[in-house]
Each structure stands twice: as structure tokens, then as C-alpha cells.
Amino acid sequence: MPDLLRTAAAYAWRIIAVGIVVHVAFSLLGQFHQIAVAVFLGLVITTVLRPVAGFLARFVPRPLAVAAALIGGVLLVLGVLTLVGESAAGQRGGLQKEFAAGVDRIERQLEGPPFRLSSHAFDDLRSRIGELLSSHRSALFSTALSGASRLVEVVTVLALALFCSVFFTHSGDRQWQWVCDQLPAGGRRNFMVAGRAAWRTFTGYTRGILLVAATNAILVGVALFVLGVPLAVPLALLEFVAAFIPLIGSPIALAIAAVVALAAKGVFIALLVVILIVVIGQIEGHLLHPLVMSWAVRLHPVVVALAVVGGAVAAGVVGAVVAVPLVAVVWSVYLALRGPADAAQ
Hints:
- The two termini are 41 Å apart.
- By secondary structure, the protein is mainly alpha-helical.
- The protein has helices at residues 3-31, 33-56, 62-90, 92-111, 119-135, 137-181, 185-227, 232-242, 249-265, 267-293, 301-338, 340-343.
């Protein structure tokens, strides 16, 4: 038997064994994905609340500091959602007129050169949409019911995430120390080194992506407001949420803003929003990410793209959001376990 084949076989069965373990681990996470998502969100909330609670703990007892930080964060989120809801409700009447006028304007433009579409084509399209909705009324009703049940599931996950974040923020260090104490003494040091590297990378990524998302949302909101695009505040919030999916989230959110601008303000404003997509992408890719994220996440853009696509294929939107921090954490743990010299690079 050639030595090369023996070496290849030795590596092959070890890779297969590791692959089986990883597959089983992710299968278990898939079975309990609500719990996994809740713990992940709890860790995200902890990265935000922990510095605030640490600052307040200088003046008041730590339990009170944690409670104040959590209540303040919840009130801030509810305030933003209230602002978005009031903005959308206040523009409802005008939006209906603007969208109706915008659709008529788009139809007239399509009827003219160079498209020269017949007006009967639009009437036929409207009738087909009406027939489609009436024929699938039961399916739409069942989808609405499943959406209501999904809403209950989302609320449950958020409540569990808040519950976990309270204890992570208050006594996360003691919980981690307890986990390390259960391990054999020989592997305890490596486990603690890996944990510190993982938490450092995770907190850096989370705070960095929050800063990038907030900057993008402010830029988009101001630009849409100046251009007179309706729903500027809700679209800015959509941009904030979409920025958590690297590379593809912001363009998708701004594409929705371009469609709104096309329907409400016409082709010229929509083209300006498309230009805004390019400008925001350049600012995010060449300024924000290098300045904010480079010290926390050292991943090549190709790796980020593959991670996002792979996460989306495996677990949808949740997988796309979780993929990049997961890959970054694994890489930082690998560097930390290789040695101080490699971890410092």
C-alpha cells in the first residue's frame, strides 16, 4: 500500500468522523431551532446590555443595573416601533392616492414608446390577479392563520431571549466558570482560551454590525426624506434590519425602496434611489466594514459571501444572519488554539 494512499485514508476517515459529528450537532439544533435562536438572540442582547449594565453597576447594585438596562432597551425598541407605526398610519391616506397615481403614470409610460403596450394588457392582468386571489382564497386564509401561529412563535422566542439575556448579563462570567469547572483539568485551559476568543469576536461583530446597520439606516432615511419618498422611516427601519445580512441585505431593502419610489414619485426619483443603492454599498463596503469590523472579524469577502449563501440555503433568513458570526467565531477559536502568535495576527 503506497504511503500517500495510507495518509489520505487516515485523513479521510477522520474528516468523515468530524463531518458526522457536525451533521448530528446541526440536526439537533434543527430539531430545537427555536431554543437555539432564542439563545443566539439572548447573546446578541447581552453584548449590547452588558456595557450599559456594567456602567450603571458603579452607582447601583448590579441586579438593579441589569433591570434598568433591560427596561431602557425595551422602551427604546418600543419607541422606535411606535414612531414607525405612527409614520405609516399618518401617511396612509396620501399613500393610497400617490400609489394609484403612480400606477396610472407607469401604465401611461409603458403604453408609450419604446414599449407601446396595449391598455388591454393591463386590464387583463388586473382580471387575472383578481381571479387568482378568488381561486386561492382558502389557501390565503390558511396562510394568514399560519402567519398568526408563527407570530406567537416569534413572541415566545423573543421572550425566552430576553429571559436568557437577563442572566447572561447579570452573571454570565460565573455561568461560564461553572461550565469550565465541569471539564477535565487537562483540557480546561484550552476551553477557556477558546471561549474568550469566541466571545471577543462575537461581541465585536455584534456591536460592529449594529453600528453599520444604524449608519446605513440613518443615511437611507435622510436620503429618502430629502427625495420625498413616502414611508421613509419604515424603509429606514427595513434597511437597519436588512443590514444584518452582509452583502445582500442592504441592496434588497433599497430595491424595495426603489419600487416604492417608482410607484409614488416616478422614474427619476426611482433612479436616484438606485444610485443611492450604489453609494450606500460603496460606503458600507469600503469605509464602514473596514473601519468598524476589521478588528473584530478577519474574513475574506469571498468567505463572507459563501457563508451567507450557505446559511440561507441551510436555514433561510436565520441562517443567513447567523452564518457570518458563526464562521468568524470558529476562525477566531482556531487561531486562538494554534497559539498566541497566530491569534495575535
